[in-house]
Design a protein that fits this description.
The chain is of the alpha/beta class. The chain folds into three domains: 189 residues, Rossmann fold, CATH 3.40.50; 201 residues, Rossmann fold (3-Layer(aba) Sandwich), CATH 3.40.50; 47 residues. Helices cover 50% and strands 13% of the residues. It has 17 helices and 16 strands. Strands 1, 3, 4, 5, 6, 7, 8 and 9 form an eight-stranded parallel beta sheet that branches. A six-stranded parallel beta sheet has the order 13-11-10-14-15-16, sandwiched between helices. Strands 2-12 form a two-stranded antiparallel sheet. The N and C termini lie far apart (81 Å).
């Protein structure tokens, strides 16, 4: 068999979470179907080298919103056999050929089915319509839907989900939005993030003390920074991405001070594990810069910056920690599945929907806080309580793991049955779990602030996407106007136009001389 898997692979800046979801999904399918996997990626060379898997160029859509719908229709024409729809060198033709020869298409998990990342939504919609046109089964796995969706983008999302035989939503809000769009419970399933068990249950995280102990990736050396020493004992894992630029936050400096207090509280060093940046390099944007800012505001001398590692190694290092602190999504996913206490801080409404949802799947959502908790000391207090109750939290997570892992396995069994056309019991999906709550004031404040935080931040995101849409419409109209003016100028300067103008002037002169007689 052959299955195509769509993820956000091979980006200019390596993204641990995005890579983790796609390769975890590929592993799950390979284990059940013994299928050949073809990964869609922006860098087939890098992806093939890292994971030892066939890889081809993914579909690429324009960033400006006004151009996406037109490009989607061109892809539709191409899928229906119109060889003039797009240039011969466009990646769509290779994708169409691969879909034709495949047994199915999987859109791996992610958080890009919204208007903030509209070009990624349309890339997935295009792959879905190709699969639909060619009669190939499609599964959409482990997604966040929304929360910011322009009307035209929600329509595209609805079309994509209609194509799918099975759809996985990874938090309650996404599940609810799927139902609002008319998906039934037989098709829409509550699931975990695809990469939850990238480090298999029961396996030990990265043993301390040596780079070689970290699992890397097939066919590639571990691109660790020369001379860097990995933890030789217990440690705190932390990952902080850039501040929420749409909301104009200034949080990274405060996080340096928070980490120093965590060091004092626990007696453990902190290792900053970046999730976005160039593999093995420092100071190259993304989390490199965020972590350097955090480090610059730390005074303990016990906060250390790691290089960017391949997804399996980053996950293994994270789950080997005693505590995870983060404003990114996948440290939460890795940590909770391995029983590690996690305290998460959401930058904005989009982040809060995902972090609160992921931690709610394990019944520890009280430790997912809105950004406002940072200013009033709630984040510090949540860290302190997580540390004090760390044995209780681990016991809680460990008690839930068998049933949650069974649901995860059942989901992938159902996905495999779609592609192999075998009859198995339908996917059951996640249900409610026992909740481990906090009665502390910091938790009550966070719960009280959440609705307003999401409303304000979500409003900013909506305004930004609407403005971006209007701006792109304006730019498109200006482009069309300029093309019309250029065409007019070409006509005016053409020989035939000048000849016609001379003949018209001569005719006018003749009419004047003859007194208007013909």
């Amino acid at each position: 068999m052959k299955i195509l898997v769509q993820g956000d692979l091979g980006q200019v800046a390596y993204h641990v979470g995005d890579e983790a979801m796609a390769i975890a999904a590929a592993d799950e399918l390979r284990a059940r179907l013994q299928a050949g996997i073809v990964l869609l990626t922006r860098d087939p060379g890098q992806t093939g080298e890292l994971y030892g898997t066939a890889a081809i160029d993914t579909l690429v859509f324009p960033w400006p919103p006004a151009e996406r719908s037109n490009h989607l229709e061109l892809v539709r024409r191409a899928a229906r056999g119109d060889r003039t729809a797009l240039p011969p060198q466009d990646s769509v033709w290779r994708v169409i050929d691969e879909v034709k020869s495949a047994d199915g298409v999987l859109i791996a998990g992610g958080g890009n089915m919204n208007s903030l990342y509209g070009w990624l939504l349309y890339e997935r919609a295009a792959l879905g319509l190709i699969a639909n046109e060619l009669g190939k089964p499609l599964v959409v796995s482990g997604q966040t839907f929304g929360p910011t969706l322009l009307p035209q983008d929600q329509q595209i999302l609805h079309e994509l989900l209609d194509y799918a035989a099975l759809v996985g939503a990874r938090e309650p809000s996404s599940y609810a939005l799927g139902f609002q769009m008319g998906l039934g419970s037989g098709k829409l399933i509550r699931v975990l993030d695809d990469a939850s068990f990238l480090v298999p249950p029961g396996s030990v995280g990265a043993p301390p003390g040596s780079v070689g102990a970290l699992p890397g990736s097939v066919g590639a050396e571990n691109p660790a920074r020369e001379g860097f020493e990995y933890p030789a004992g217990p440690f705190i894992a932390a990952t902080f991405g850039p501040e929420s630029w749409r909301d104009g936050t200034r949080s990274l400096a405060k996080l340096g001070e928070v980490l120093d207090r965590a060091v004092e509280l626990t007696g453990l060093p902190v290792y900053l594990i970046p999730h976005v940046g160039h593999l093995g390099q420092d100071g190259q944007g993304g989390d490199h810069e965020s972590h350097e800012t955090v480090l610059a505001h730390s005074r303990s001398g016990r906060v250390h910056v790691c290089p960017v590692l391949p997804a399996p190694a980053a996950a293994a290092l994270t789950v080997a920690s005693e505590l995870v602190l983060t404003n990114r999504y996948h440290p939460v996913v890795f940590g909770l599945a391995a029983g590690v206490p996690v305290v998460a801080l959401a930058n904005d409404s989009y982040s809060d929907v995902r972090l609160h949802g992921a931690m709610g799947n394990w019944g520890v959502q009280d430790w997912a806080l809105p950004l406002s908790s940072l200013d009033i000391g709630g984040f510090d207090l949540a860290i302190a309580e997580a540390w004090t109750r760390r044995a209780e939290i681990r016991e809680h997570l460990d008690s839930l793991r068998p049933q949650i892992h069974a649901v995860h396995e059942n989901w992938w069994d159902a996905v495999a049955s779609i592609f192999s056309a075998t009859g198995v019991e339908a996917a059951k999906g996640l249900g409610d779990v026992v909740t481990l709550e906090s009665d502390s004031e910091w938790a009550k404040q966070a719960r009280g602030q959440r609705a307003q935080f999401r409303a304000l931040s979500g409003g900013i995101a909506s305004l930004w996407t609407e403005w971006d849409d209007v701006r792109s419409q304006r730019d498109l109209l200006l482009h069309e106007r300029n093309e019309a003016l250029d065409e007019k100028e070409r006509i005016v300067q053409s020989r035939s136009f000048r000849t016609a103008s001379m003949l018209r002037e001569g005719a006018n002169l003749l009419r004047r001389v003859s007194g208007g007689r013909r």
